[in-house]
Structures are given as structure tokens and as C-alpha cells.
Amino acid sequence: GQAQLYLDNAPSEVKELAKTFDMMLSRLSQSWEQERQFVSNVSHELRTPLTIVHGYLQSVLRRQNNLTPTQQEALETAALEAERTIRLLQHLLDLARADSGYLHLHKEPCVLNDLVAEVVSMAKKYSGRTIKIESTTQSIEVKIDYNRLKQVLLNLIDNAVKYSEADTPIILKLNQQGQEAIIQVCDQGCGIPLQEQSRIFERFYRVDEARDRSTGGYGLGLSIVKTFVEGMGGTVTVRSRMDQGSVFTITLPACSLLE
Ligand code: ADP
């Protein structure tokens, strides 16, 4: 309103300038859109063949029992790398979708305790770690995208596994405060320096390449967590102390299944 009024009475140079800015802005957003589209297409195109490669590797590993240890190891490494890349592509796809507003969350009512139990039993199997659930409420009801929330918790547990010693436990705490469901993922690992804590949710951000390289991530896990959780109307925060451990807290709006 007021800006337009000002522009209407502005000298022609200012009007020209405003027009130029408008044009620049629309070109910029066009090229952003193209970049998003590009990332999304490439991710999609790569994911399909890689999934096939991964499937074949898995089936050879399952069926061939006459492999030499060297062959076995080579195939296992190939399968792991394929898996890691598939996950990266999935993350890039999800972020590109979220950016363009095409990330559709299918929210449905569910019991949080069941979802957490399912995720924990999965994570225990593939990590071989001690993962405990501490819950103050029998059944906390939330309306969320089941698979996306599973992904969120798996990302957080993956990190807890990666950034703590194998003999330390990982604890998932569940409780409800009023209209809020709270999930905490706690580890007793290396911790995150205070000055980095606000940046770890950024895309491709990793605290320390030297420290983090061996854990083989891309710095996308937490930006996925944030995107999904906020998409479900929740929040995610971190509290951490060096050499003591980290606690990631997710809050989600609780609901009643009877509603
Ligand atoms: P990455 O793939 O590098 O793990 P994330 O986005 O999941 O990417 O995490 C970003 C960075 O935050 C990590 O590189 C790591 O430095 C730090 N970080 C995340 N979770 C933990 C944790 N539980 N303990 C210590 N550091 C963590």
C-alpha cells in the first residue's frame, strides 16, 4: 500500500530502479526453481538404478555361500556405499520437495509409543547398540506422518550411534506435557560445541570434517529432521555438553484419537 503510493509519486529513475529490482528478483527465483528442479530430477534418476544395483548386491550376498572373504568384503562395502548414496539421494529429493512446497505429509493419528518401539527395535538390529525407551505415559497420541517421523527418529538415533562410544547406551524418552508430546534422543557421546549448536540444522553443515569424515554422512540428516518435524507442526532443539553427550528434543502437538 504505502510503498506503492510512494512509487506512484516517485521520480522516473526510482521507478526504473524498482522495475529492475523486480526483474532481478523474478530471474533469481526462476533460477532457484531451476536448480531445485535439477537437483530433484538428478536425484530421482540416480536413485532408481542405484536401488537396482543395491538389490542385486544384496541377493548375491544372500545366495552365494562360496565367496572368498575378500569377495565377501568387497561386495559388502559396495552394498553399504550404495545404501549410503541412496539415503543421500532420498534426502536431496525430500529437501527439494520441501523447498518447492511439494512435500506432502500424510498426517494420521497414531500412538507415539508404538512408533518409537518399532524404530528402536529396527535400530537395535542394525546398530547392535543398547537402545532403551523410557516413557512416562502408556499411550501418547499424535497426528503425524508415520513414515516421516520414523525417518526423523532414525536420523537422530543414527547420529547418537555415530557420535558415541559403542559401550554407551542411547535412551529415548517419551512424555506428554499438556497438549505437547515430547520425544528426546539422548546419547553419552562426544557432544557438540556450544557455538556450533545453532548451525548443525543447516544443510551440509558438519561440525568438524576431520572428526565427522569417518562417520560418512553428508550433513543433511538434521536438516531433514527439522524440515519434517516443522512440517508436522513441531519443533526440534538440542542441548549438549562436550564429552558428556547430547539430547535432541522433539515436540509434537498431541491429539486425542477420539477427536
Ligand atoms: P551428518 O551426516 O554429518 O551426521 P547431520 O545433519 O545429521 O549430518 O549432523 C550434522 C553435524 O552435527 C554432524 O556432522 C555432527 O558433527 C553433529 N552431530 C549431530 N548429531 C550429533 C550427536 N548426537 N553427537 C555429536 N554430534 C552430533
UniProtKB/TrEMBL annotation:
It comes from the Bacteria. Its EC number is 2.7.13.3. Keywords: Kinase, Membrane, Phosphoprotein, Transferase, Transmembrane, Transmembrane helix, Two-component regulatory system. One of its GO terms (molecular function) is phosphorelay sensor kinase activity. It is found in: Membrane. Residues 1-33 form the HAMP domain. Residues 41-256 form the Histidine kinase domain. One of its GO terms (cellular component) is membrane. It catalyses: ATP + protein L-histidine = ADP + protein N-phospho-L-histidine. It is an enzyme of class 2 (transferase). Photoreceptor which exists in two forms that are reversibly interconvertible by light: the R form that absorbs maximally in the red region of the spectrum and the FR form that absorbs maximally in the far-red region. This is histidine kinase. It comes from Atlanticothrix silvestris CENA357. The lineage of its organism: Bacteria, Bacillati, Cyanobacteriota, Cyanophyceae, Nostocales.
